[in-house]
Amino acid sequence: MSSAIPEQSEMLHSFEYGNCDIWYMRFAVSYNFETLAAGNQIGKVFVWDISEEPTKPVILSHQKCSSAIRQVSFSPDSSILIAVTDDSSIWRWDKSTAPCDVI
Predict the structure, then answer these.
(1) What is the DSSP letter of 66?
(2) Which bin fits 18, alpha (ψ -120 to 50), beta or left (φ > 0)?
(3) Do residues 68 and 85 lie in contact, with contact meaning Cβ atoms separated by under 8 Å?
(4) Which of 70, 49, 69 is nearest to 58 (CA)?
(5) Is the CB of residue 40 less than 8 Å from the CB of residue 16?
(6) The CA-based dihedral angle spanning residues 17, 21, 23, 24, taken in that order and rounded to the nearest 10 degrees
(7) Which residues does 69 contact at the CB level (< 8 Å), separation at least 6?
(8) For residues 89 and 103, what is the distance between their CA atoms, to the nearest angstrom?
(9) Phi and psi for 73 in degrees, rounded to 5?
(10) SS3 at position 29
(11) Distance between CA 73 and CA 76 in Å, rounded?
(12) Phi/psi at 21 (5° precision)
């Protein structure tokens, strides 16, 4: 019996993602597996359309959100994105009204 473990994973894609040098950042994938989002340590959320080949992210930000975003989550229909920060604030971005600065 061999003790070697076969490689069972592969990198699917690598994303450009800055200011995320702290020890953990959680990401979210939409329920339809078309969108991926992750926050960074200066209060920005990067959103990628993963249903297509490599794309540039949409970067969501707000002038009052400058704390590390540790967790993000999509609503079941992917129209709302919630972000939770280190300073205990919760941010909501609505796809239809975009109450944020889109860079």
Answers:
(1) -
(2) beta
(3) yes
(4) 49
(5) no
(6) -20
(7) 25, 39, 40, 41, 43, 44, 45, 83, 84, 85, 91
(8) 21
(9) -155, 140
(10) strand
(11) 9
(12) -90, 0
CA separation (Å) from 47 to 2, 60, 79, 86, 103?
43, 8, 12, 20, 11
Do 45 and 25 form a contact (C-beta atoms < 8 A)? no
Q: Tokens 């340590």 identify what position?
A: 41
Q: What is the pLDDT of residues 46-83, one digit of tens each?
A: 998 888 776 788 888 888 888 899 899 999 999 999 99
| pLDDT tens per residue across span 1-25 | 556 656 777 776 677 776 667 666 7
Residue 78 near residue 30 (C-beta atoms within 8 A): yes
